[in-house]
Amino acid sequence: MSSSAQQAADGDSGPDMSGLMAPVFGYAFFQIAHTAASVGVPEAIGESPATVEEIAAATRTDPAHLSRLLRSAAAAGLLTLREGGRYEVTALGRLLREDSPSQVKHMMALHAAPAVWQAWARLEESVRTGRPAFELAHGADLFDHLETDPELAQTFHRAMAASTSTQIPALVAHYDFGDFTEVVDLAGGNGTHLAAILAADDRISGTLADTAQGLSEASSVLGEAGVADRCTTAVSDVFESVPAGRDLYLLKNVLPDWDDESCTRILRNCREAMAPGGAVKIIASLVPEDPRTIDGGQMTALSFFDISLMTLTSGRERTLGEYEELLAKAGLRLREAAPIPDTAMYHEVTALAA
């Protein structure tokens, strides 16, 4: 008798493999969720359960293939199958809607982009060689590639703005700018972050600095927020120079994208540009010195962000001690590091001239 037959005869079906579904086949669940969101399944269903035929008509998809997608989406917890073959969107599935405050649909679109998907396929080679997977896949780093791929660049900047929009309430509620009145948001993209800061404090004027591509939608964002009269834009390469003479320089989610040498160059440019008494604020997740000290869910999210950085860039998530080393190399010193509540391990790290 074979071992499997013997197990069946003994009532032992072998090890439970269900726990391997997420780590082994997570790529498939991601594509199921992304495809459902991309074709508009949550919007097509709306607030009332709908049949496959109704959803197919609304999404202009093939009913037979859609039926299989919906069944898989239900197995993943995004939908619920009701009586009469009608599907209903779950609370988890509602996060995939275009109007969801989570804005997760835009981040999924970035990671589902072919160029990014191809980079993830080179993760093993990245681990073996120490080179970014994106560079291995495309022969250029992510940011150089964005200059030649307008479609991916648009997807990238929308994902970054969407991510920022979900964090803004916690960030703005936490900020205390004290006597600082001239704020530069470096690599600030379309201005979502800076616009919220200016709208919350009319004492502050701002400068939004980024590449021409990054600033392409800034005028409309600043205008709609009603802060365009207190904000200028500056085409800037943070590795070469930053707008001079301001008293506060913000680096939100910038340094994690780069290696230590690049980070030091950015920070040194800030040190040389800032007015006397000025400061630099780094807004980023901090890796705890002992990972056992934080919640498992938070560590899972932080670990994913870190591996994403390893896949797409030369950067990484860092500990506070590692940031202090970067500051020292750039002629800066740590003043304080404060956690920002209701964010993914975000901290506000403030530095002054050494």
TrEMBL record:
Keywords: Methyltransferase, S-adenosyl-L-methionine, Transferase. It comes from the Bacteria. InterPro entries: COMT-like, COMT_C, COMT_dimerisation, SAM-dependent_MTases_sf, WH-like_DNA-bd_sf, WH_DNA-bd_sf. GO terms for biological process: methylation. Residues 120-332 form the O-methyltransferase C-terminal domain. Signal peptide: none annotated. Gene3D superfamilies: 1.10.287.1350, Vaccinia Virus protein VP39, Winged helix-like DNA-binding domain superfamily/Winged helix DNA-binding domain. Pfam families: Dimerisation, Methyltransf_2. GO terms for molecular function: methyltransferase activity. Residues 24-96 form the O-methyltransferase dimerisation domain. The keyword Ligase does not apply. This is Methyltransferase. It comes from Streptomonospora arabica.
